[in-house]
Amino acid sequence: MALRIDQDHSRFKQIVRGKIKANLRKYVQQGEMIGKKGKDTISIPVPFIDVPHFKYGAKEKGGVGQGDGEVGQQLAPGEEEDGDGQGKAGEKEGEHALEVDVSLDELAAILGEELQLPNIKDRQNEKIVTTRVKYTGVHTIGPESLKHFKRTYKQALRRQIATGKYDPNRPVIIPIREDKRYRTYKLEQLPHTNAVIIYMMDVSGSMGDEQKEVVRIESFWLDTWLRSQYKGVETRYVIHDAVAREVDRETFFHTRESGGTMISSAYKLCRDMIKADYPTSAWNIYPFHFSDGDNWSADDTRVCVDMLRADLLPAVNQFAYGQVESPYGSGQFIKDLREHLGEQPNMALSEIADKDAIYNSIKDFLGKGR
Amino acid sequence: MPKSLTPRLQDLRVEIEGYAREFGLDFFETIFEIVSYDEMNMVAAYGGFPTRYPHWRWGMEYEQLSKSYEYGLSKIYELVINNDPCYAYLLEGNAEVDQKLVMAHVFGHCDFFKNNFSFRHTNRRMIDDMANHGTRVRRCIDKVGIEKVEDFIDRCLSLENLIDQHAPHIRRNPDPKRAEEEAKANQNVGGFKVDREYMRGYVNPTEFVEAQRKKVEEEKAKAKKFPERPQRDVLLFLLDNAPLEAWEFDVLSIIREEAYYFAPQGQTKIMNEGWASYWHSTVMTRRALKDHEIIDYADHHSGTMASGAGRLNPYKLGIELFRDIEDRWNKGRFGKEWDECDDLRARRGWDKKLGRGREKIFEVRKHYNDITFIDEFLTPEFALEQKMFTFGFNEKKNYWEIQAREFKKVKAKLLQQLTNFGQPVIEVVDGNFENKGELLLTHRHEGIDLKGDYARETLKNLQTMWRRPANIVTRVDNKTMMLRFDGHTHTEKKVESL
């Protein structure tokens, strides 16, 4: 049934998606994007438009709370009150705010719905299949090892009651041959769906904590989406300044070097990695590279472009480059890539000005459905 | 579509209403309707009025409500509209015990709406008026187009909180002092001092005196402040003075009227919820509950009262405070003798068996709002028992932390949060600033800075409406600053305080 609100609702959605009223776009906020990551739970992203008011700066505000704890003790996240105290008081009762657990699958579905992401289309390798055993039903014959105990028991109980042999005071159930039930299985041919994500990040001096935060948030969402699209997803992490090396996740997000930037070093390592571990025929490969775009020299950029064209792009599903704006401005690299490789269908480029731009950037990266 | 009550629910309603009246609650006729959950979300998104003017922000509310419902985060059990008759929406498919609880709760709200002084000037035909507002706005949309109207509404919403919440209760007369001053100024129309009376004609020729008088009058006209006194009701000032088109005037006055309708509900949130909760709890536990319902009731009641993760829950604070008042007035724990008693043991055992608790809370629900309620009845014992604390942001450690548990600080913080809905006090001081027709506002700084980016954006909206540069004087990092938007650029400069 159509509700009266639908009109307002779709208008709101259009604003959030940037279809209408571009002037409001800048007030769109993404609610909480990363919640608890432990145990696969997270808060739901709810976009909202915050029309500006004269109001107090939130961090200076504070408030009154209730509960145990020493003075000076940290409040659990989410306890602070959010700016506005107004609202429609006195009309609502019992909005029980329970914490809800949303699985990463659901989260990916929400993300897909929100950003209208296309599902990833299969690449060439449908030929590669794995065989999987799937229990599909119950049968009256089969090997003892696959006996379905519960069904067998039920069957026996039913028979005994029907034939009047069941004595509630002495409930002994003895299955006979006809009672026995066995699981049956089918062999399923599944297309191989392995994917590897290779994250590369520039950790040269110009990438600050804020830039890394952007990369961290963005990579979380990319992970979430790709994991929802593929069965087994591996992730590899590469950091580089003038030289590149592979690191673990923790190091990836917390290293800060000071050297110069040679992007080709990372691409070389990425290429070698793919060659060594991920044959193109069996893997869906997603390299993501984040940098502030200040490459060492034009020569090095040329090396990068050549390498992308010759080795990387043909091998991967999509090569994504995100340029994060840093206090030192953002560099030339994205322009060079756009100029030389912009027409390549599996090259995704995105400029990420700040945290708020992550939303659009995810769309840039995943919107192609590759 | 909303449905009226089923016969079974109708019976329950009669039963609960009977109990409510028996306890002395006094309310308007209350009309219950049953709605499905998405209708409930819709009505709630519209702030209770499904016939309201169209605007995307209802859609935003709806999105949030329906999402959090779908993911099991929250569920609205009930919604009451302050109107005569009161309208209340119940959620379809709720268990019987929930519906009973909700009905009792609703009667509490209705009693509060009818009797609390804050609502004395509230429009009790708001349902009809909101529908009329909707029609008027739609007509504007037909005339000038949705984009224009919506943009204007967005701008109005940005200024929506700039009202004078005390306005309905006070008649602001023109300043009596001003008339006196004016009279005085008139006498002193210049001319040089004359020692010898016969010289007057030569020292101060008539033409000269006339010219002087004219000059003084001109200056006075210039100096005449506009508005005469700082005006809190910025929306009214804009309505009276901004160069608005007819439809813009109409829309702005609608927004203002609705803001005034909702303001008293904001001023009595803690009391209103506390009062309604007190009564659902009393009605249910003393009368309406059947044995088999007790666990479900307890579950839902405690769910509503839960103070999640250190947050202050208005339901909880309200009901506990009402209970505390009832208890104190039952036992006579008030007045000079009680206040001056230092003997802890005597205090603990204090019971004068006055039994005036019920009577007192009815009185409180009539004459107080949240601020006076907290100010008068929050006691150190209560704050201690309820484990209240203040929290703030620790810049060094970059997290929110518990700051204090002292009663004075807790109370001060709580009152500060409630004052003007915890929003900055902004006034218009000059509509003809520097004699250039610019708008000048001030922020009455009470220790907390404005949020800078928001202030600038809001200033922009003001400027668009005023069509001349807009300025606001506030304090930033302990310096008095004037923020200005002239239609193209934002500037700020240090100024002497006004």
What is the number of E strands of chain A?
12
Distance between the termini of chain A: 36 Å
CATH superfamily of the largest domain in chain A: von Willebrand factor, type A domain
| Structure class of chain A | alpha/beta
CATH architecture of the largest domain in chain A: 3-Layer(aba) Sandwich
Say what the CATH topology of the largest domain in chain A is.
Rossmann fold
User: Roughly what is the average pLDDT of chain A, rounded to an integer?
Assistant: 76
Taken as a percent bin, the fraction of beta residues of chain A is: 15-25%
Low-confidence stretches of chain A: 32-42, 78-101
Shape of chain B: globular
Q: Over the alpha carbons, how many angstroms does the gyration radius of chain B reach?
A: 28 Å
Which pair of chains forms the biggest interface, and how many residues does each contribute? A-B, 68 and 111 residues
